[in-house]
Every structure is written in C-alpha cells, then in structure tokens.
Amino acid sequence: MRDAAAYICWSMARAYDGRQIGPFVDRLAPALINVVCFDRALNCRRAASAVIQELAGRTQRFPHWLDVIGRTEFAELSLLEHTFLQMGVHFAATYEVFREAIIQHLLTDKSTHWDPAIRRLAAQTLGRISAVVPFARRDPALKILLERALSADLNGRHGAILSLAQIIGNDRSLNVEAAGSSELQAKLWRTVKSLFEELKCRNLYVGMGGEFMKEGSLAMVEQYCARGWTVPKEEGLRSSWQEVVLSGVNTESDVVQEVTVSAVVAFSSALLKESTNVHHEPFLKALLGVFSRHEAAFAVSTVARSTVLMADEVLRPLANDFVREALAFLRATFGSELRRSETVADVVGAVVRLVGRFMGEVEEPLRQEVADWLIRALEDHTITKQGNVGLLVRVAAMEALKTPDCPFLNSMAPEQLLQIVRLVAGEAVFKRNGSYPLAVKKLAALGKWIGEGKQKSATGLLPEETVKLMVQLETDQGVISEELEQYAVLVKLFDCHQLTPWLWPGLICVIADPLLEPFTKVFVAFLRASPQREQVLETFLKVATDKAKDGRLALPLLVSANALLTSVPTSGEWQEKVATVCWSVVKGSANPKKYLLVADVFCTLVPLGSANLGNAMRFLYVLLGHQLPRVRSYTATEMYTALMAVDDLEGDGGDGSQLMEAVELLQTTDWLVAAEARAARERIRAIVKQALSASE
C-alpha cells in the first residue's frame, strides 16, 4: 500500500501542471521524508525518493529540495542504518519544517514497530536528534515515552525504554543532579531509578518478552552511568540495578550480550566513583565467579569482553585474579569437543590484553602461562561441522598482540617470540580472507619491533634480511594494498630456514585452492629462481611426513605435491621421496578422493624417467587392483595418458615397443570388472618390469 501510494503521488506529479499540485507539496513533504528515511522496505524508500525528485523538479516548491534530492538519491537508500541514523537525523536536526513530523513518526510508529531491529534504530535516531534538539523542553515526547515504558504492549514498552535510554545518554540538557528544576525531569528520574524494580515486580523479565526488557534495562544502565552519574544510593534500587546487569551477563542472546558488555563497563566505573567505594569490589568478584561456571559459555564470553574495556583503575585490584580464573577456564575447556570457539577466542584475547596492561600486578607464573596459551591459540586449526572455528581463536590471538612498546612481548623467552613470529607468518601465507589482512599487518609490526633492537629478547631473533622483508609489508602509506605484491614479499620468507617449516602448511592449502592460482604462480616464480630451492623442497617433504595423517592437510598435500612436480624442477631423489610420502598419506585410508589424487601424483612421475616409472609402478599396481571400481578405472585412464607421454614410446625395440603393449591393455581392459582388471594389471606389471630390465 505504501508503495502504491507513492506511485499515485508520482503519477499525479507527472500528469498535472506544477502550479496545480504545488499547494499540496508542503503537506506531502514531511510524510515523504518519513518514508524515504524510515520505511523498512527498500522499494518504498526508493518510491518515495522518486516522488520527491518529481515534485521538486516540477513544482520547485519542495522544502530545501536541493539538499533533499542530493541526500535521497537511490544509491543512498540501500542501507537502513544509513537512512535512519544519517539522513533522518540530518533532516530533523537541520530543518524545522521536517523536525516535528520526524520525531512524531519515530515516537508513534517506529518505536512501536513489530520488528525489534526497527525499534532499536528508532531509539538510536531519537537519541542522536536529542543531542542537537534537546528533549528536556519537549514535554509531549517525554510524556509519551514515560507512559509507554510500563504499558502492556511489549513492542511499545521495549521501544520506549530503549528510546528513553538513548535520550538520557545524548541529551545534555537532562541532568539527574538538577531533577528538581522541572516537574517532568523529576518524573523522568523517578521512573528511571525505579524502572527495574517495577519491571521485576510485574514479572516482565521472564517469558517471551524478558530478553527485550533486559536489553532495554541494560541500555538504560549503560547510558545513565556513561554520563558520569553515580548509581542510585538507595540500597534497594542499587541492588535492582546490579541484579539487572548480572542477569544480562547470563543471557545467551547476542543482542543482549552486546548491550551487557557496555553496561558492565559503565556500571563498574560508576561504582568506583562512589565516595565509599564499598560496592565496587563485590561487583567485580561476582563477575569473577562466572569463570568457574565452565558450561556458561555465553556468560564467560560477556565477562571476558567486558574486562578488556574496563578502565585500569577499575580492574587493577583484581587483575591478577581475573587472569588466574580465565586461565583455569582455558585449561578446562580448550580441548573439549563441546567448547564454544567464540568464548575461547574472547578469553584468549582478554588474558593477553590484561597481562599487557597489568604486568606489575600479574604473577610471573601466570604471565608465562598466558604466553603459552597465546602460542597455542595461534596454532588452533580446529575444524568442526560449523567450519574452521579455530580461525576465530587465531584472529583473537593476533588482535591481542600489541606492538610496539609491549612489555608482555618483551618479557617472553626468545623461543616463544620466535614461535609467535612463525605462527603469524604462517597465517599470512595461509591467505584466507578472514585473517590475511590482519596477519600481514601484525607481521609487519613484529618486523619493525624486532628491527628496532630495543628489546634484548628480540635481538638476533631472525636474520636481518628476513626482518627487512617483514618490514617491507608495510609502507609509509600503510600495508601494501596489492595482494599479489604482498604475497611476493611473503614467499621470500621461505629462504629463512627458521620460518620455512611453519610457512609450508599455509602454502600447501593455497596451492590446493584453484581460486588462489595467481598466488601459487607467485610462489612458483620465486621458487624457480631461489638458490635455496632444494632446501625449501626438502622442508616440504618433512612437513608432509609430519602432516600425512592430518585431516585438514591430507588432501591439499597430495594436490600440492602434484603441482610442485609439474611446475618446479626437482631431482630424482626428491621425486622418489615424494612418492613414498604421498603413499603414506593414503595408506589405510577409506577416502576414495585420496586415492584419485595420489594416482595423479604417481602418473605425473611416470614420464620423468625410468627410475620414476619403476618407483611409481609399485603404487600404481596397488591402485589398479583397488576394490573400488572407480579408483581402478581412474588410475588406468591417468596411467594411459602418462605412458603416452614417455619418450620414444613407439620406437623400435627397447622399452618403447614393450610399453606400447601396456598402453593397449590400459585402453582395452574393462577396469570396472574385477576379474578382468586383476589379469590386466598383472600383465602390465610384468611388461613394465621387463621394459625396465631391458633399458638397464
């Protein structure tokens, strides 16, 4: 209906003379502004924008039409947050002709909307408007919100409490210390202070709307305390405020959790400002007790995130206790299959930051344990049905690393520092969008920190050339923007033997990903030109041997081995070793895809020389007799192609004419029939053996 109404207005503007419809524009303008800024449907916002452009162009009477047309063009209307918080606030704060209509629309329609996201946006918009247009003198608006704050309508009650919270936080004309100056303000502060107790008495914190009431109450606490005001001194009111904050800690709602973090930080600061300061430490101890409830993952996550944001003077008395309890939580849950990775990430990030902030207060054994957990977090590659959840932990650990002038990093042992550099470099080479930009930035920062030489533990940690490469990742204008250019610098780190084993796992995954082929080409170009190519390839074999049974790397290892054989010059000894390593990856496996990939590797080896033919045939013989028809058939097809690529296959005498018979068998045998496949593979084995003997 709203879209149709806009279409009618647009049609009339097109059909009638501008002088005839001009008198109606002033009445339509505020309504159209409300639609273009606050309508939930994108098509309605764009329809209203079209009407505004048509009316402004034909009548020249639309209020402030030059500014309005520029701000309401189609491209500006895509994001609802932008239209509410930028456009709506601008029109209400700048133009009086739109102000009353906008405020009234937000109060009556959007703050009572059925969609909670719209109610939240309406509250934020009213708050931003109140920062420019004070609500202390707008009696009707505040009266509407105060009456609705305890109404029976859940949507209206939720929207009213959120709106009051935002207005209290933004309207500087409101002052709790001067509540007696206005009867309306006095009523406002009475309502705010007793609101939580009233909601509890009416049992509105439970049931379907309980989470909405917690969200509104926590937003009220946050905005009230953020203004620098102390918590109400009445013991009953103070207890109800603290109870609301602690109840938010225990919620599992992501939205309420976000508000709770801000409320906890603001509330703890407000308690510290009290003259007696007797309630501050008990509140922190209540938060501290959450860590012992290992099953309460959401609550632990909320407390961990809150501690990171608390001021130093707030947290200092119990900083050591928070670190100790957080470490106990990690010890109990980090290896559990039922763990919540988001919580682990929050706790890891919190303890690393806390130790960095409170080096003097945190005990030495705890600092060393935090360093160990930091390294363990950077190594986390846990994969579940939800995907690579270890990425959350790795990103949190990297974000917590602060350089330069980080006393925590400087207190670590050289081997711990080197391991951190290795893991961050490996994450950068891994080239995943979720962590790549952050890893590159942190690696460059670590390079600068090491290169400055101010920290004794970092002196001589890495060769000077390697440190310079790390620093090159970041220019004076910031991190290198061209990713291929970045990667060309990263792959040069493979020349550093201290880093190479930790870089290979990430690069193996890059080589195995067809979408990252340009980055694979960058590495191949580096490796072909590198004087240390043989050492780098030997390290690949060591990593492949160690990771042969790693479920995350098994398949990428096979793809990478085949890619290296086809793109990089390799020695016969290395080729023989890679065949053995690849077979160890698939040995005993029940995954058919592994057998298909290893068949590719062995068939790639066949044309590279008679020694490789004999070595590969040992494994191809097994694959040709595999119990799965698909594996037999695929191996035969690939082996046929490989033998056709052998030099002088059709020549007279020697191994060429003999191998031609094997090629014909591969082509004519029905490899889906087990009996026929067994006979053919025995004959092929004998032919290859005889051909190799003749060539010797």
Describe this structure in words.
With 696 residues, this protein is mainly α. It is 71% helix and 1% strand. The chain contains 35 helices and 2 strands. A two-stranded antiparallel ribbon has the order 1-2. The longest helix is centred in the C-terminal third of the chain and has 22 residues, at 674-695. It is globular. The termini are far apart.
Q: Which terms would index this structure?
A:
696 residues, mainly alpha, two-stranded antiparallel sheet, 2 strands
> Could you tell me the mean pLDDT?
88
Helix content: over 70%
Structural class: mainly alpha
Helical run tally: 35
Query: Overall 3D geometry?
Result: globular
Concise synopsis of the structure shown:
The protein is 71% helix and 1% strand. The protein is mainly alpha-helical and 696 residues long.
Give the topology, please.
Blueprint: H1 2-15, H2 18-38, H3 42-59, H4 65-71, H5 80-94, H6 96-110, H7 116-132, H8 139-148, H9 154-170, H10 183-201, H11 210-226, H12 235-249, H13 254-272, H14 280-288, H15 297-309, H16 312-315, H17 319-333, H18 341-357, H19 364-378, H20 390-400, H21 407-410, H22 414-430, H23 436-452, H24 464-472, E1 474-475, E2 478-479, H25 483-490, H26 500-511, H27 517-529, H28 533-546, H29 554-567, H30 572-586, H31 592-605, H32 610-624, H33 629-644, H34 654-668, H35 674-695
Antiparallel strand pairs: 1-2
Helix pairs in contact: 1-3, 2-3, 2-5, 2-6, 3-4, 5-6, 5-7, 6-7, 7-9, 8-9, 9-11, 10-12, 11-12, 11-13, 12-13, 13-15, 15-18, 17-18, 17-19, 18-19, 18-20, 19-20, 19-22, 22-23, 22-26, 23-24, 26-28, 26-29, 28-30, 29-30, 29-31, 30-31, 30-32, 31-32, 31-33, 32-35, 33-34, 34-35
